[in-house]
Amino acid sequence: MESLMIADDNYDVVYGMETNIDWNQYEITLLPYALNGRDALDKIIANTPDILIIDIRMPELGGLDVLKYITEHGYKTKTIICSGYDDFEYAQEALKYRVTEYLLKPVPWQDILASVLKLQKQIRKECLQNQKYMQMQKQVEKNMPYLRERYLSKLVCEEGINSFDLESFQFFGLHVTGNHSTILVVQLDDYLGFEQLHSRLEIESIFMSLSTIVSRTFLNYFVCDVFIYMDQIIVCLELSKDRTDNDLIHVCRKIQEEILTEFQFTVSVGIGTECKSMEDWYSSYRHARAKLEQIFYVGPNTICIDMPATDSVQEKYIYPQKIDQLLVTAIKLSDKTQCGLLLDQFFESFSGAKKKVVFSFCTGLVHTLYLACLEYGWESHEILVSNNEFLYLIENYSSVQALKNHICKIVYHLCNISLKGKSPSTIINAAVSYINHNYQNQITLTSVAEYIHMSPNYFSVQFKQTMGINFIDYLQKIRIDEACRLLLETNEPICTIATKVGFLDGRYFSQLFRKLTLRTPSEYRNQQPGIHSIRAIPTEK
After folding, report:
1. Domain containing 196: what range?
2. Who's near 308: CB < 8 A, 6+ residues apart?
3. Lesser CB count within 10 Å: N end or C end of the chain?
4. Do both 297 and 325 map to the same domain?
5. Rounded CA gap, 272 and 357, in Å?
6. Each residue of 147-193: pLDDT tens digit?
7. Measured in whole angstroms, how far is the alpha carbon of residue 364 from the centre of its chain?
């Protein structure tokens, strides 16, 4: 309901307006009336009416003076003037104070009602518009982080900038003006490995945390804006005469240390060229990314501020065919020492080459190893993929050392397979022994496969064929068997036992225990002592 206040020095007029119209019928609430201008102003301040009917000439304070006050103080009250003076100057003055209706006395009640209802309709329309605006405003505020990130991505990482971009700068509350600034790129050194360990939601959450660390640390020393772009964190940094390159490197190093402590992985930072305006940001960004290419050789956890370019002359690199043949021979002899020396020579033969040369040589070597597997009957082709797949894999390695480690793992695995009498079942037995001695640790199919130099997929298949049970079920059986023993032979709390046998989540331990033993840990502990092993592992439906 809208509120209505009447201010007139003639009580009969006021009484007539209030009684001759059934205001409740029109959803209008009457506020206390006023018989002079001073009283009217006090009641307006106290009650803030939606609609005001006021006379011009009143004792103590004129109607126009009241309107001037509420206009200057931002009141949204809609006003109707009822006056006995048909004076153009009064009407002209009233227009300055946003008076909606100017009615001459005597005014028929029907005209007053029509004017009030007209204002009521206007008020409701404005209220609805304000609600829609507020909803839109809330939606914009909710999406502001995304909009700001998208705007900065366009400004920094996409070529071309127009006046609209610059004019929008203030809207997003950004801090760096572009004058005497630079662009930094922070990237994970082993994004491929990171991506394999985490879901998409986890990756987004971790990147948000990384962005917070980067922003918080830089803001202690510099003016900056930070945003996430694809798999990188971009920093728009305002340079200062009070800060040197050493200060910038110091801050980058602090960020690397905090991320390593918090997340146990490393990042490298590429620092772009200095910018004189925002139009230079794209060039600085590209320069920073180009510098990060150099970590392929210098290794992870690097700050790339002034890195030399790699040799652009590719013709001088000749594929070392003799080395790869010697490597196959060393594998046949299961000579891991010789294999290591040959791999060192292989990678030294293209030291300093561009990444595409490195990728080409490594793909050629793996293809040679694949052919050797087929020729000598080594049952290890599952760890070697086609050239195209391997090329995709190696292109995601962040350093030449990581790529070398991957190929070393393949070669050493082939050495194990080629050993006389070293059958797959013998290797699986070694894996079982490792599991039996390390079940209390956070071992995984991947970590056990690495221990015996097998690929996870190949190890999983061989384990199931040899043991008649898959890896996860076997590991769970070993852990639950030991938990059964501890429940019956010790008084340790259930949560302690769960931790001792390798479970980090007590609730998951209890659920799995009940699934495998058909009892809760508490029920099992209260049974007759003596039998404490799992009778059978239920087959999953």
Report:
1. 175-304
2. 294
3. C
4. no
5. 26
6. 888 888 888 888 766 554 556 666 777 888 778 899 999 999 888 77
7. 38
